[in-house]
Amino acid sequence: xxxxxxxxxxxxxxxxxxxxxxxxxxxxxxxxxxxxxxxxxxxxxxxxxxxxxxxxxxxxxxxxxxxxxxxxxxxxxxxxxxxxxxxxxxxxxxxxxxxxxxxxxxxxxxxxxxxxxxxxxxxxxxxxxxxxxxxxxxxxxxxxxxxxxxxxxxxxxxxxxxxxxxxxxxxxxxxxxxxxxxxxxxxxxxxxxxxxxxxxxxxxxxxxxxxxxxxxxxxxxxxxxxxxxxxxxxxxxxxxxxxxxxxxxxxxxxxxxxxxxxxxxxxxxxxxxxxxxxxxxxxxxxxxxxxxxxxxxxxxxxxxxxxxxxxxxxxxxxxxxxxxxxxxxxxxxxxxxxxxxxxxxxxxxxxxxxxxxxxxxxxxxxxxxxxxxxxxxxxxxxxxxxxxxxxxxxxxxxxxxxxxxxxxxxxxxxxxxxxxxxxxxxxxxxxxxxxxxxxxxxxxxxxxxx
Length: 450
Description:
Elements: H1 3-8, H2 29-32, E1 45-47, E2 53-55, H3 57-74, H4 78-96, H5 101-116, H6 120-138, H7 143-158, H8 162-174, H9 178-194, H10 201-216, H11 220-238, H12 243-258, H13 262-279, H14 285-305, H15 310-340, H16 342-348, H17 353-382, H18 392-411, H19 418-435, H20 439-445
Antiparallel strand pairs: 1-2
Protein name: MalT-like TPR region domain-containing protein
InterPro entries: TPR-like_helical_dom_sf (IPR011990), TPR_rpt (IPR019734)
């Protein structure tokens, strides 16, 4: 595996954290061949497919050289250990084959020795070779791959190659190893803070990733602490009249919303909205997204109070509806602006700028229309209207959502995305539940999106 492949492929196992100790690879025989009989883990023996046992002088030498090299290493005799680890690699290749897991173990052992000797240029290719062999033998998700790449991660952290190390916790997280990812990213953050870089962009990005890990595992209290730390750092460096601070505050607000703290969430979102209105044009999509967030918080507030304070619940729904109408208006304005200036934007913007802006605006539009239908249905529930009476406002919002998707994706060339598709399908499913088999009829009677 090449270094570039390590960076680019997010399906590989990575590291747990930095340690001062050296981790030598264990004998791969038993793990690599789990069907071995009791004699299968004898030195230099390997069971093959027909059940026979193969042994040769090279496999025996590999074991002897490996054990003796470890002894020298523990005694601090690094030069002697290096020679024997080099010999162990050659004997493993001769005895087991070039791509056998025993070769990976031997490469990892020598790489660890070079790491301790600070011969970093020699260590890295050996780590990568070990990972490549193990991946080919067992697949990228095998625990042995994780152990090998753990050592590579320690290597990168020890050199403060934090960008290379960043891949480590992202890959671990994608593999479902949340605790390992959390431990590793905390190590990375600690190193940055101890090095006086706690307010750097890199450290802020690490903290954001850590908070996302907490959010995805519903550890809202931990996520909130990290988000407050981020906001504190950004606010100190840039003040509140900055979009960077607004984004940090908005992230905290969404975390508070997820934990049910609507009061603080609403306060942060309202402050974010005021700053955005001062810094951005009135039809900027960030303002539309901000209004959508406020509407969702108002809906959550409604659900928390509808049994005890119906009048307050109704007021929250009215507020949510107002926010959503404004969000829809801004999203539409943004979409029209993108489409009208499409050719102009191609000349003066980076490739994809206008496309991305249009996709974001359409996603916000569909989410706002979908949420508006929920507001109308919640109002119907509060007013105790019989369910057999179709909610015309909810109906209109859902049909507009479906029409908007067809209008902008199919007719006006806004590229589809998973987020856009997900919102469209959600609207379609809710419309089917509301109208039953009459959805197609309703859509055929529906005018184009307005």
